[in-house]
Amino acid sequence: MTKAVAGVRTAAAVSTAKLAAALSRRLGLGGGTALPGLVAEAVAPGLAAHLAAELGQGCLLVTGTNGKTTTARLVRNIARAAGCRPVHNGAGSNMMRGITAALSEAADPQGHIPERERRLGVFEVDEATLPEAAAALGPRVIAFTNLFRDQLDRYGEVDSVAALWREALAGLSPSVTVVLNADDPGVAGLADACCGPTVFYGVADTACAVGGLEHAADARWCAACGHEYAYSAVFYGHVGHWACPACGRSRPAAQVEAVRVEQPAVGPLSVLVSTPAGRLDLSLPLVGLYNVYNALTAAATGVALGIGAAAIQGGVASFTAAFGRQERFDVRGREVQTILAKNPTGLNQVLRALVADGGRLKPSATPEPEPKNLLFLLNDDIADGRDVSWIWDVDFEMLAGHTGLLLASGRRAADMALRLKYAGLDPDPVLEGNTERALARALSLTAEGGTLYVVPTYTAMLQVRRILARWGHRPQFWEET
Amino acid sequence: MAFSLRLAHLYPKQMNLYGDRGNILCLRRRCTARGIELAVDGLEVGEPLDPTGCDLIFIGGAQDREQRRVAADLLAAKGEALRQAVDAGVVVLAVCGGYQLLGRYYRPAAGEDLPGLGIFDAWTVHPGPTAKRFIGNVVVRWQGVTLVGFENHGGRTFLGPTARPLARVIAGYGNNGRDGTEGAMQANAFGTYLHGSLLPKNPRFADHLIGLALARKYGHSELPPLDDTLEERAHAEAVRLAVKKPIFG
Q: Which domain holds residue A467?
């Protein structure tokens, strides 16, 4: 293909993508986040690579089982604070077509990216898409959050995801910096496969350690010799200070490290981080230690990009939660909090945060923490994972004595209710298959002024957003800035 | 008279891939509801199995890496005891990877055959990384009723002349996607590809296992019925999902 023809084709693909996005929105098909990319790739194969090459600041990829969207969003804010103009697949559409759509959206009708010298690609990438994305986009930095069991029906085993990543890393240019979680042995071990520089991040403050490994912990066994890891501190899942007593492999030293973590019952997380760029005092309007890790991944990515401490701190401070992942709505005089949970480790973290909230930090003389009103929404669409057996790996038992209303809904409402029953929580949890009716019912059963916690899987979260938007509460996600 | 049963849970740390814990939670709850005490012993690699000390044995599924590690221990340290237990009528439930290990051998896509315990006259062949993995909701017919679950296996299991299938496939793949069989049974040992977890949504099968264990120990197996409304509803939902043809692949 001649250069002129290629240019025409790129322009045609970008225009088609823009048209598809507009149509998709007009027809109410969704956010217009994946379809345009699909269409554009069909018109001009290799469009993503072509457009990515125009980004003056290059691009970075964020992948891992949990925390991709929150982390990528934090990095986007950090990049903005550093004076960049990020191109970002912000709606969670994290396969190639979503990245292509984001790039097409940023391009002008001639197929060029304006203000190119300030443009930095900040892309969240699906675990299985990483090899393709890394090859096509030529990133400067790749950041890994963590590796847990998730959607085994789609990704295969946890080990096969790790093998896929190692292969992708081994084929990278040595100029790529890889950001790794020192506290997750499955991620830290990827360093062996890297040919260029690495930046490790982790938590040093052992005051936030929990009693022991959760049932859903995956990487219990040394990747090198097969012996069971010994932990001097477990933070969540299999994330902590690990070492293999047999072969001596252990948690690497972290260059970006949380030296003090404060998780107040009310108010933002506060994290003091030491980095090669200086100390950071981070404040984050989220709950749960897993979000401390998301902030650390983002800060370490900022460090890897050569961004200064002030911009990293400022970027994190300007953060608001990614759509649906953790949001508050004021609905009919009740507060509705949605917290996305789509795999055992993620849901365990959510439950732990709910149980701790308002209880743990109060002196024992004060009354019991207020019981929580909970609506669990379990779907089994492809994006959620068709196999719902993962709920049996979640420690719902920890909710005992902490629940008020307990309601199960979604496509697999009965499975969810059954799991709650077998956790001994309530012999008769409220069951409602239709999500809109479930939401209405949960609200009517929540006292005025009270809080309803909605814990949905991915597609259920999208449904909740649509329903609340229809009721007049909050713009749909593609309209947010 | 107070009844009590003892369950040996083999490799709970390594063989726990697909919500297998739900099976243990289910057995415990259904025993407790009938005033039967159920003690559960988790046995990891290196810990011996006492074939006369348990009434039920459970083994779940795992990733290939863990399964290989467990296979070595199962053959060397626990194999003889497990065979004795099956001969003595101890109730065994083996799911997915655990089921494969109780067959005669497992033939990986590459490399040598991995020997199994040979409790079931069955063997498993992995047809290679390009072959379709059997993934999805599954419904089978067992003793005139349905069992539901989710299957996710690359290996195809074939039954020899002395093996009996546990069930017949109604929707899904089962042992090998060809002959309509699902699982295997030998004495009171049951192997199956169904997880989901298997027992909570299949209370009849759970009670069947408890009943067999009680009958063997006490010569009686009457289990008063429980309120299974929720269980039956989840069961019916799973049947509906499995028999409904998906719109996209």
A: 326-479
Given the residues B96, B126, B208, B235, the one annotated as active site: B96
Question: Known catalytic residue: B195?
Answer: yes
Give the domain B3-243 fold.
Rossmann fold (3.40.50)
Same domain, A201 and A71: yes
Please, are residues A348 and A148 in contact by the beta-carbon 8 Å criterion? no
Q: Does B10 score more than 50 pLDDT? A: yes
Q: Does B230 touch chain A (CB under 8 A)?
A: yes
A434 vs B: CB within 8 A: no
All residues of chain A having their beta carbon less than 8 Å from the beta carbon of residue B152 are 152-153, 387
Q: Is B235 a catalytic residue?
A: no
Q: Looking at A317, A335, A363, which one is the last position of a domain?
A: A317
Q: Would you say residue A39 lies in a domain? A: no
Confidence of residue A219 (pLDDT cuts 50, 70, 90): low
Residue A365 has pLDDT above 60, yes or no: no
Mean pLDDT (chain A) is 86
Domain with A399 in it: what CATH number? 3.90.190.20
Structure token digits, residue A144: 């890994």
Looking at A260, A294, A317, the residue that finishes a domain is: A317
**Sheet with B167-171, edge to edge strand ranges:** B145-153, B134-142, B167-171, B181-182
Indicate whether A27 belongs to any domain.
no
Backbone angles phi, psi at B186, to 5 degrees: -150, 120
CA-based nearest residue to B125, from B114, B135, B138? B114
Task: Tell me the pLDDT band of A359, cut-offs 50, 70 and 90.
Answer: very low
Specify the pLDDT at position A8. 72
Stretch 350-409 of chain A: residues touching chain B, C-beta under 8 Å: 380, 386-393
Is the residue at A396 inside a domain? yes
Domain total in chain A: 2
B1 to chain A, closest Cα gap in Å: 26
C-alpha span between A201 and A123 (Å, rounded): 20
Indicate which of A160, A389, A426 best probes the interface with B, i.e. most B CBs within 10 Å of its own CB. A389
State pTM to two decimals. Answer: 0.75
Task: Indicate the Cα dihedral angle A219, A224, A229, A234, nearest 10°.
Answer: -50
